[in-house]
Automatic annotation (TrEMBL):
<feature type="domain" description="MurNAc-LAA">
    <location>
        <begin position="259"/>
        <end position="414"/>
    </location>
</feature>
<dbReference type="InterPro" id="IPR050695">
    <property type="entry name" value="N-acetylmuramoyl_amidase_3"/>
</dbReference>
<protein>
    <recommendedName>
        <fullName>N-acetylmuramoyl-L-alanine amidase</fullName>
        <ecNumber>3.5.1.28</ecNumber>
    </recommendedName>
</protein>
<keyword id="KW-0378">Hydrolase</keyword>
<dbReference type="GO" id="GO:0008745">
    <property type="term" value="F:N-acetylmuramoyl-L-alanine amidase activity"/>
</dbReference>
<dbReference type="Pfam" id="PF01520">
    <property type="entry name" value="Amidase_3"/>
</dbReference>
<dbReference type="GO" id="GO:0030288">
    <property type="term" value="C:outer membrane-bounded periplasmic space"/>
</dbReference>
<dbReference type="InterPro" id="IPR002508">
    <property type="entry name" value="MurNAc-LAA_cat"/>
</dbReference>
<dbReference type="GO" id="GO:0009253">
    <property type="term" value="P:peptidoglycan catabolic process"/>
</dbReference>
Length: 421
């Protein structure tokens, strides 16, 4: 766990120390640790540059800039620029931003659809700035309140808008602009061609003799996750991606064979789709959407869910053996998997909540899921809802909701590749 923290915190010195320990553990387990030895060699090569970065952090200049970053939020103007590029509105802040800096709502007034984005901040040039985007009737930008910059997208049809947070920048992206110009048509065609180079493997959980979780009225997890996976398959294909399903019918597949398939297809990302469950006494309390990436679980909740999903494979290993193996196998892709999980979870919630406002955010969590162990690419496991909850269990078998979930996941895939070329 100390090594994982070092990776996430970009602490190269600590990363090297713990990576040495992982190589030793791997050799004791008779695992191929050549990849990790190469990683050690890379870390050794950047030793000098790492020291320079550390010394720079202690200089007066950087201490001053750090203080400036923390005080920007309370300064007069903390938004530096707002621009439009093709189907995107880009808002640049002077400091790092969090999710709670943005508030989104939708309205319909006088036959027009309004997508309203409120930002916690001030923009000196809000009044003179004019934003124009082909396919959107009007974009209005105002300093709505002293600490609130408002951007409104006003259109005669309902726009599908998502937003992406990246360090000091927010990107509002419109996914369904009409092809108003040849240039727009060309950009969409270019994007589809570009997506063909991206390979996505979708894994519908369970199947065959393994029904997965069972909800009320004998609703089987294996059935709904297969349907959602198929909707996702066709949605991603329309967007130009090269897509494969580990199973396209009610068939049992060993957990280890699912990622072997993804590796053979040279997948860029691996997405395993599941539905959650709890004991009957908790049926109505437990609900929400959660996304997991591979790591030794920290929370009892993650361990409980992983135990359910892992029961068809590797059940004989004890906890310490599992954690040691997970740490070795996952170190190279934990950060990318976490980024993928965040993008998918955010877009999945945003899309699903357009119809159902009561959907709870279970968060992005670490979890020891064996179906993700062998993947040689960023990989996540999505629990699309609790099949044991009366409301979510019913929705999970409604075609309109299944398509909504698939669209949210697809939007998350778009977001991940947009930020991680």
């Amino acid at each position: 766990m100390d090594y994982l923290r070092a990776v996430l915190n970009n602490d190269k010195k600590s990363e090297k120390q713990h990576l040495n320990n992982l190589v030793k553990i791997g050799k004791k387990l008779n695992k191929d640790v050549s990849t990790y030895e190469k990683e050690l060699t890379k870390l050794a090569s950047i030793k000098t540059s790492t020291k320079k970065v550390v010394r720079k952090k202690t200089t007066t200049k950087n201490v001053t800039s750090k203080k400036k970053t923390t005080t920007y939020k309370n300064s007069a103007y903390n938004i530096s620029k707002v621009t439009v590029e093709e189907n995107q509105i880009i808002i640049d802040f002077k400091h790092y931003i969090k999710k709670d800096y943005i508030h989104y709502s939708e309205e319909k007034r006088g036959g027009k659809y309004y997508d309203i984005f409120d930002f916690d901040g001030r923009f000196e040039d809000a009044s003179p700035t004019k934003l124009v985007m082909n396919g959107v009737d009007r974009i209005r930008i105002t300093q709505y309140k002293y600490r609130t910059l408002r951007i409104e997208l006003i259109n005669d049809y309902n726009l599908k808008a998502i937003y992406i947070i990246s360090k000091k920048r927010v990107i509002i992206k419109i996914l369904n602009l009409k092809n108003t110009t040849k240039n727009t048509s060309k950009s969409i065609a270019d994007k589809i061609r570009q997506n063909k180079d991206k390979v996505v493997v979708i894994d519908p959980g369970h199947g065959g003799k393994d029904s997965g979780a069972i909800g009320d009225r004998k609703r089987y997890e294996k059935n709904t996750v297969l349907t959602v996976a198929k909707h996702l398959y066709y949605d991603l294909k329309k967007r130009g991606y090269t897509v494969y399903l580990t199973r396209n019918k009610d068939k049992f597949i060993e957990l280890r064979d699912r990622t072997k398939f993804a590796n053979r297809k040279n997948a860029d990302i691996f997405i395993s789709i599941h539905a959650n469950a709890v004991p009957k006494s908790q049926w109505e309390k437990a609900k929400g959407i959660e996304t997991f990436f591979l790591s030794p679980a920290r929370s009892s909740r993650a361990k409980r869910i992983a135990a359910i999903e892992n029961k068809t494979d590797m059940s004989t290993m004890n906890n310490s053996s599992q954690n040691a193996l997970l740490t070795i196998l996952n170190q190279s892709k934990i950060t990318s998997s976490q980024k993928l999980g965040i993008d998918v979870q955010q877009n999945l919630l945003y899309t699903a909540r357009k119809k159902y406002k009561d959907i709870e955010d279970g968060g992005v969590r670490e979890g020891p899921f064996w179906v993700l162990v062998g993947a040689q690419m960023p990989s996540i496991l999505i629990e699309i809802g609790y099949i044991t909850n009366s409301t979510e269990g019913r929705r999970l078998f409604e075609t309109s909701y299944q398509k909504l979930l698939a669209k949210g996941i697809a939007n998350g895939v778009d977001s991940y590749f947009a930020k991680n070329q």
